[in-house]
């Protein structure tokens, strides 16, 4: 049996076991995907032991996405650029390969939902400058987006990302961004998530040809998406990114590319 898991602390909220087990059933691979609650002080020891226990790899989630980079033997270019990893593969010699698939998940979800979106012709406004923002910026720049406007409550964090990603990224004040001149708006903050404050921005000038993507998927239709829809915009929720970021890991570990189906979406939403 091929064993894979997801490491985090806490981990019980993770939808990944449900998703990967669905794919295991669909692809008829004999394996399992288990949630592994691991404290920071035990992370290194656990990652050393898992390959010896027959694990093929693991996903990594909060709070370990950054610290695993120090433990991995090989880090992909995109994981280095993002500064975090979410997908580890254990090689037969026990060495650890670290990748970050959040950016792929973001772009694939966007491309699938909005096939007419042209990254090279569309400027983007990104709200937030945390881990998810890094993945989104990196993926958009890779896709050829000519200009990214970045706004974050803590401006210094946005400026730090500008320093990393270069002058295609422009920083704007959190209170003072213009939603009218971007083909794509992405909320990468946790605002709008159940239990968090709402994202309070003025959408009066929002243009109907703007695509609005919220990475938050709980609730599936955030207040931002509901308002954007009312303004006539095409909206994309965060669940698709979650699903798409899981595909490269599943394919690498189990040797089969899984499918994104409506049935899977419904299963995760239930
Ligand atoms: P993070 O690194 O902790 O960043 C959180 C971001 O939210 C920061 O920019 C932070 O601003 C901002 N923020 C938090 N509270 C705020 C407030 N009250 N007012 C204004 N800004 C606030 O978290 P992350 O890993 O990037 O995740 C962010 C969100 O994306 C989460 O909701 C997460 O679930 C979602 N996400 C979804 C996917 C997916 O697959 N759909 C993948 C990754 C993440 P400051 O810098 O000022 O604190």
Strand content: 15-25%
CA gyration radius, whole angstroms: 19 Å
Structural class from helices and strands?
Answer: alpha/beta
Mean pLDDT: 96
Unreliable runs:
none
Query: What share of residues is helical?
Result: 25-40%
Strand numbers in spatial order across the main sheet: 2-1-3-5-6-4
What would you say this structure looks like, in words?
The protein has helices spanning 16-27, 43-49, 68-71, 77-82, 102-113, 131-142, 155-165, 223-230, 239-254, 262-269; strands spanning 2-8, 31-37, 55-60, 74-75, 87-90, 96-99, 124-127, 148-151, 169-172, 184-187, 211-214, 234-236. It is of the alpha/beta class and 270 residues long. The protein has a 6-stranded mixed beta sheet with strand order 2-1-3-5-6-4. Strand 1, helix 1 (16-27) and strand 2 form a beta-alpha-beta unit. Helix 5 (102-113) packs across helix 9 (239-254). The protein is globular and about 55 Å long. The chain starts with a strand and ends with a helix. The structure holds NADP nicotinamide-adenine-dinucleotide phosphate. NADP nicotinamide-adenine-dinucleotide phosphate is lined by residues 102, 105, 128-133, 152-154, 157, 188-191, 193, 197, 215-217, 238, 241-242, 245.
